[in-house]
Amino acid sequence: MGWARCYWNQGIASEATKASLRYGFEEVKLDRIVAIAAPEHTASRRVMEKCGMKYEKNAHFYNLDVAYYALARSEWRLDDSVYILQI
Predict the structure, then answer these.
(1) For 5-16, how does the pLDDT look when each residue is reduced to its tens digit (9 = 90+)?
(2) Could you tell me the residue range of the domain that residue 40 belongs to?
(3) Assigned domain for 85 exists
(4) Sequence-separated contacts (24+) of 28-36 with Cβ below 8 Å
(5) What is the count of structural domains for the chain?
(6) Contact partners, residue 12, CB within 8 Å, separation at least 6
(7) pLDDT range class, residue 78, cuts 50, 70, 90
(8) What is the DSSP string of 24-76?
(9) 4 or 53: whose pLDDT is higher?
(10) pLDDT tens-digit profile of 20-51?
(11) Residue 6 has what pLDDT?
């Protein structure tokens, strides 16, 4: 995993998260999107928070402890990030 460090702090995860949220709300018409991360993985949790997702609870899924975040379509705010849907 050490090779991936060169990609840290470039905003790649935030842009991917924003595009995923936009796709989910605009294209798929979801009412709510949920994301999980290991509780100790603060970088992933920061990305979710930065993109507007709200922490809801700690949970246990598939024998893993996770931090559970969610965002409702009514709370989502479109930003000016680039988003291109290619089919």
Answers:
(1) 777 787 788 888
(2) 8-75
(3) no
(4) 30/73, 31/72, 31/73, 32/70, 32/71, 32/72, 32/73, 33/70, 33/71, 34/68, 34/69, 34/70, 35/69, 35/70, 36/61, 36/66, 36/67, 36/68, 36/69
(5) 1
(6) none
(7) confident
(8) IIIIS--SEEEEEE-TT-HHHHHHHHHTT-EEEEEEEETTEEEEEEEEEGGG-
(9) 53
(10) 999 999 999 999 999 999 999 999 999 999 99
(11) 77
Contact 32, 71 (CB under 8 A): yes
* CATH at 15: 3.40.630.30
The identity of residue 63, as a single letter, is N
Token pair, residue 78, equals 């479109």
The C-alpha atoms of residue 44 and residue 27 are separated, in whole angstroms, by: 24
23, amino acid identity = Y
**Any idea what the Cα angle at residue 4 is, between residues 3 and 9, rounded to 5°?**
135
**Dist CA 31 CA 79 (whole Å):** 18
Residue 54 lies in a domain: yes
Domain presence at residue 12: yes
